[in-house]
Amino acid sequence: MAVSKSTVAIVCIVLGGLAVLFGTVLVFVGPVIIDDQIVKNVEINPDNGLSYSMWKDIPVPFFMSVYFFHIVNPDEILKGEKPTVVQRGPYVYREKRWKDNITFHDNHTVSYKEFRQYFFEESMSVGNESDVVTIPNMLVLGASVMMENMPFPVRLLLSSSFKSFNEGPYLTKPVGELMWGYDSQLVDFLNKYFPGMLPTRGKFGLFAEFNNSNTGQFTVFTGQDNIRKVHMVDSWNGLKRVDYWRSEQCNMINGTAGQMWPPFMTKESTMPFYSPDACRSMELVYQRPGVSRGIPVYRFVAPKTLFANGADYPPNEGFCPCRQSGLLSVRSCRHNSPVFISHPHFFEGDPVLLDTVNGLRPNEDEHGLFIDIHPETGVPMNVSIRLQLNLLIKSVSGISETGKIAEVVMPMIWFEESGYIDGPVLNTFRTNLVVLPMVMEYMQYIFIALGLAGILGAVMLYVNDKVKSRLDDHPSADVNPSSSATEKTPLLRTPES
């Protein structure tokens, strides 16, 4: 038995209406389902295999690239001339990070210590760790500034100690020793007679205390009760705030531990995090949208106020006493050593800083820090954190090793910690947290479009069928009146015709 076109049309209208209804429901329900899926995947929960493993054992390539400012004119600096430096690097180290001592608490927080190890990657470096460079000797020039207010006889004694241990104002040593430490009798002497001056009792190196170490005990929120708090720091080493700085705001421990952030970020969001290495909380701001390995991201960068002094940015007054904008003194949390943190090459710093040292050429592409983050999940896709270590040097009376050095904040090294999600982790992340939600989002529009198309087609089919049926039921309607008249004409002819 043949099915009429009208019946088919009615069925299509019903199916199309159901498709439109389902698509409309998805418009309202779909985002809720997607958000719920994201929440389940980003909270710190051992049952979430993907996100928990990414959080616990960072499975992506992570590198630290180090650049030294090799001193070209050491003798002239001692005579008071402007320092001239040449950048040497990068010397690249593969960085391994993992969390240990993980303990979950009843208040929806988890405590852990994150450990780190570094392995030299010669294939990615300009040379090897045996390359020799010349930088300021922190043990001499740094200690001289630290002791400048001590009685003159003490300064003379310190200078005599430098001479007896053959320590001069500069270090000319292999990269490996400058990085990870070298034996020094002066270190033993300073630790014995000036305890607490140095951060180490063993070998002395710029990163000696970093390798095979941890960043302290973090306690962060898991997000299981409130996803907006996931990864946010509850305490660090048991502290809710630090006491390094001069204002309550500057001493606050804000944000995350600097690896992941809460989901559902917008262009108005900021990215706060606490850095134990910088002894303070920092905050990045939105710059622009982008795409990283096929995944939509927001780029967040350091605001110009990050290292501004109190005069240029009053909220930073608590980090003072300050010098020019662009410098952060970490003296209060680094054993009183006259060390400053800045952007590489004094990028975005006061132009005066560039005038005091020859050889610096700052630019955003090479020296600006950024994080590309997937805003829906709060997971960084591409990270480049760049910082510079500087030492305040100057002539100190009674310490002959300082000569006539003009007071200057001297760049020593800058380093970049970079990483990006790639390989199987990227594919899994893209499938679970990008592709599937995107497919669900598109499905709602596909159902609505198919439903409307089906309804439109069914209506056209129904109307066409009705018109055809009407013509079949009334065939005379298709007869031409003029032709009927012509056929009857012979009946009207006269006999004479």
TrEMBL record:
<dbReference type="GO" id="GO:0008289">
    <property type="term" value="F:lipid binding"/>
</dbReference>
<feature type="transmembrane region" description="Helical">
    <location>
        <begin position="7"/>
        <end position="34"/>
    </location>
</feature>
<dbReference type="GO" id="GO:0005044">
    <property type="term" value="F:scavenger receptor activity"/>
</dbReference>
<dbReference type="GO" id="GO:0005737">
    <property type="term" value="C:cytoplasm"/>
</dbReference>
<dbReference type="InterPro" id="IPR005428">
    <property type="entry name" value="CD36/SCARB1/SNMP1"/>
</dbReference>
<dbReference type="GO" id="GO:0034381">
    <property type="term" value="P:plasma lipoprotein particle clearance"/>
</dbReference>
<dbReference type="GO" id="GO:0030169">
    <property type="term" value="F:low-density lipoprotein particle binding"/>
</dbReference>
<keyword id="KW-0675">Receptor</keyword>
<feature type="transmembrane region" description="Helical">
    <location>
        <begin position="442"/>
        <end position="463"/>
    </location>
</feature>
<keyword id="KW-0812">Transmembrane</keyword>
<keyword id="KW-0325">Glycoprotein</keyword>
<dbReference type="GO" id="GO:0043654">
    <property type="term" value="P:recognition of apoptotic cell"/>
</dbReference>
<keyword id="KW-1133">Transmembrane helix</keyword>
<comment type="similarity">
    <text>Belongs to the CD36 family.</text>
</comment>
<keyword id="KW-1003">Cell membrane</keyword>
<protein>
    <recommendedName>
        <fullName>Scavenger receptor class B member 1</fullName>
    </recommendedName>
</protein>
<keyword id="KW-1015">Disulfide bond</keyword>
<dbReference type="GO" id="GO:0005901">
    <property type="term" value="C:caveola"/>
</dbReference>
<dbReference type="GO" id="GO:0070508">
    <property type="term" value="P:cholesterol import"/>
</dbReference>
<feature type="region of interest" description="Disordered">
    <location>
        <begin position="473"/>
        <end position="497"/>
    </location>
</feature>
<dbReference type="GO" id="GO:0033344">
    <property type="term" value="P:cholesterol efflux"/>
</dbReference>
<keyword id="KW-0472">Membrane</keyword>
<dbReference type="Pfam" id="PF01130">
    <property type="entry name" value="CD36"/>
</dbReference>
<dbReference type="InterPro" id="IPR002159">
    <property type="entry name" value="CD36_fam"/>
</dbReference>
